[in-house]
Amino acid sequence: MATPLSADKLLKALKDEGVKVAEYKSWRTHNRNGAGAWGPVHGVMIHHTVTSGTDSSVALCYNGRSDLPGPLCHGVIAKDGTVHLVGHGRANHAGKGDGDVLAAVIAERDLPADNESDTDGNVHFYGFECINLGDNEDPWPAAQVEAIVRASAAICRAHGWGKEGDTSVIGHLEWQPGKVDPRGPGISMGDVRRRVAERLRHDAGWSPDTGDQEDEEGDIVPKRSLYGTHEYTRTIEPDTWTTLHFNRQYEGKGWVEKEPQVSILFGPVFFSASIGVRVRGLQRGAEFQIRLARYQEGEDGKFERTGTLPINSPVHSGGDGHFTYTWTGQLTGSRRGRLRVEVIHFGDEPVTVDWALAESLYWAA
Questions:
Q1: Which residue in 77, 160, 346, 360 has its CB near the most CB atoms, within 10 A?
Q2: Mind listing the domains of the chain with CATH numbers?
Q3: 294 pairs with which residues across the strands?
Q4: Coil/strand/helix, residue 126
Q5: Dihedral, 220, 273, 310, 212 alpha carbons, nearest 10
Q6: DSSP per position, 26-81
Q7: First-last CA distance in the chain
Q8: Within a 10 A sphere around the Cβ of 241, how many other Cβ atoms?
Q9: Alpha-carbon distance 76 to 17, whole Å?
Q10: Taking a C-beta distance cutoff of 8 angstroms, is the pair 353, 341 a contact?
Q11: pLDDT of 41-99, one tens digit each?
Q12: Which DSSP letter does residue 95 get?
């Protein structure tokens, strides 16, 4: 059970996460607590306003409508990424939704389909209304989506959510049957959740690199990412492409242990990537192949392979092998891309990768 953050703690969490915050009127004491409880809280819910214009949208979410008293959320996220706080306490934003979805949020597991309206969501969720017409044509600027990610991560971090998964942040469409928000070009709840999960792997003040940095002469200097393994092995069955996992990352001052992850680079970027792999148990003359694979997010929120870079294919004399290769390429596209390391071998018995290192230089595409 999670007690809602106090107004002061909520404000601090948002600011610590790098959110630009505007405090609207008496938001700290503006709520619907007289109509029911707020808490225990278990997650964050994202909506769109079906309005345009910052001032009018913020006022609407603070005051409410004739048929629905305000506040209609806890914060309004404007197109420029500013989060306008309009309430603290119970807010009329979630309505009744699916109790099975709430159970999945609490357990931090994959969300089931929302097909019932049997549970009061205003009790259990923080709510953010995002200014968008909701017509599936009004675009979502990058600054607004980044603010959604940061605000959601701030609340998850403050409560300790996100340790077992990334489903503490949901859209209204995933909660209440018949709802479609948030929708439109540039927004995807799957993408938001992945970005929240990535933020939670770092300190609150972390910002993802765009890759653009200039030296004294104005030339672009690439950024560097470095992923590795530590006391982690991966069994490679014969004739089966297998994605390598990396359980640590170098973050400037040293190595940081991570939950095993598969992606070594996040697009859109241009890159040069060097991969080192140590293999145990190769048969004499058996071929071992390494490739880099590009993945893109599909409409269903899942990542699908969209292509691979040229395969490197050494043949070992038997036993243990240590192979290093370098590729250059790009991760581009209309949706977020990922780069992963995949290996295969053609022996008769499984082999083991007991060490891998992925070092990339990259700059914005």
A1: 77
A2: 7-200 (3.40.80.10), 223-364 (2.60.120.1400)
A3: 307, 339
A4: strand
A5: -30
A6: TGGG---GGGS---S--EEEEEE-S---HHHHHHHHHHEETTEESPS-SEEE-TTS
A7: 44
A8: 14
A9: 17
A10: no
A11: 999 999 999 999 999 999 999 999 999 999 999 999 999 999 999 999 999 999 999 99
A12: -
Residue 144, class by beta-carbon neighbours within 10 Å (0-12 exposed, 13-18 middle, 19+ buried)? buried
Burial class (CB in 10 A: 0-12, 13-18, 19+), 160: exposed
- Phi first, then psi: give them for residue 15, nearest 5 degrees: -65, -40
Half-sphere exposure of 218 (CA within 13 A, CB side): 0
Instruction: Write the single-letter amino acid at 227.
Output: Y
Query: How many other CB atoms are there within 10 angstroms of residue 134's CB atom?
Result: 18
Alpha carbons 318 and 321: distance in angstroms, whole number: 8
Residue range 140-188, pLDDT digits in tens: 988 899 999 999 999 999 999 986 556 899 999 999 999 999 998 889 8
In this structure, is the dihedral angle defined by the CA atoms of residues 37, 74, 126 and 28, taken in order, positive or negative? negative
Q: Tell me if the pTM is above 0.85.
A: no
* The residue to which tokens 């996220």 are assigned: 77
CA atoms of 22 and 19, how far apart (whole Å): 10
How many residues belong to the chain?
A: 365
Q: Are 302 and 193 in contact (CB under 8 A)?
A: no
Confirm if 23 and 14 have CB atoms less than 8 A apart.
Answer: no
Q: How many CB atoms lie within 10 A of CB 323?
A: 17
